[in-house]
Design goal:
Layout: H1 3-30, E1 41-46, H2 59-71, E2 77-82, H3 86-93, E3 99-103, E4 112-113, E5 118-120, E6 122-127, H4 139-142, E7 147-150, H5 154-157, H6 161-167, E8 170-173, H7 178-186, E9 191-195, H8 196-206, E10 222-225, E11 231-237, H9 240-255, H10 258-265, E12 273-274
Parallel strand pairs: 1-2, 1-3, 7-8, 7-9, 10-12
Antiparallel strand pairs: 3-11, 4-11, 5-11, 6-9, 6-10
């Protein structure tokens, strides 16, 4: 056998060996978990349209996605939607969830907290004919004779409601906030305590027969009194690095006007008269 032929075979064997080795490592690596940018960031979120709907869209979704986009996160965000308050419990019990949004400072959860990223404006909705003089300077005291419906977990978020829930003739917490608009329009309750955007959304969903819509009967005049200071909410993360990334992106969208633009895109209907109030209950 000629020397060149031997060298050729040796070279071929080396190339084939390298190719087989490369294929081996390729097969090995393909069985490993996918790169981080292909792994979803799983976030527990409450069903509170227009803040967050069943499809993972709304004001909260827009803010969270904009903050992470500004921070350069290369992972898709997956919102796991569930009733308000249940999303806290699901995060606490399910380690597959990386974070939970809409967490007030009063609720304790394991993890690291972001800066406040969104504020809800809670207040009192009522028909002017049922409380013609308004709530005055002591709104909680004025509500002690009222039949009240409010959102689930309200006493955890708004501490002033704890004593009121015991003194009012009727105090009901319902997670289904669509029903709030219905029972107020029917006269079953005197007032609804809720976030301005959420109540307005459901009132418009119910239709023109519900008080407060643009086409509502003129005999009904729905009023919103923002007696509570805006409630700040935070994101709780399991990962310190994700928290830092979110905070950095949040800072960017606060400074460049993106956050203000998102908030301005969601506004209450002109069908509800919003009262001006000096001071608020913290």
């Amino acid at each position: 056998m000629h020397v060149p032929e031997i060298m050729y075979r040796q070279a071929t064997d080396i190339v084939l060996g390298a190719l087989c080795l490369g294929l081996f490592f390729f097969a090995l690596l393909s069985g490993l978990p996918r790169a981080e940018d292909d792994v979803a960031l799983r976030i527990a979120a409450p069903l509170l349209p227009p803040q967050m709907d069943l499809d993972g869209r709304g004001r909260e979704a827009d803010i969270v996605q904009a903050a992470f986009e500004a921070a350069g996160l290369n992972r898709r965000i997956e919102f796991h939607i569930m009733p308000f308050t249940r999303h806290w419990k699901s995060y606490a019990s399910d380690q597959r969830l990386d974070a939970v949004i809409t967490v007030p400072k009063e609720v304790t959860l394991k993890g690291v907290r972001s800066e406040p990223y969104i504020y809800y404006q809670n207040g009192v909705f009522y028909d002017r004919s049922s409380i013609p003089g308004g709530l005055g300077n002591n709104p909680i005291g004025a509500l002690e004779l009222s039949r009240i419906v409010t959102f689930a977990g309200s006493t955890a978020v708004l501490k002033e409601l704890g004593p009121l829930s015991e003194r009012a003739p009727m105090y009901i917490e319902r997670a289904d906030q669509l029903s709030h608009s219905v029972v107020l329009a029917s006269g079953f309750v005197d007032v609804v305590i809720a976030d301005e955007l959420i109540f307005d959304f459901y009132t418009r969903q119910v239709g023109a027969s519900v008080a407060g819509t643009v086409d509502a009967p003129p005999s009904r005049e729905l009023v919103f009194d923002p007696i509570f200071c805006p409630t700040p909410y935070q994101v709780v993360f399991r990962s310190f690095e994700l928290r830092e990334l979110f905070n950095s992106g949040l800072s960017v969208i606060q400074k460049n006007g993106t956050l203000e633009k998102i908030n301005s895109d969601y506004h209450a209907s002109r069908g509800v008269q919003r009262l001006d109030r000096e001071g608020c209950l913290k």
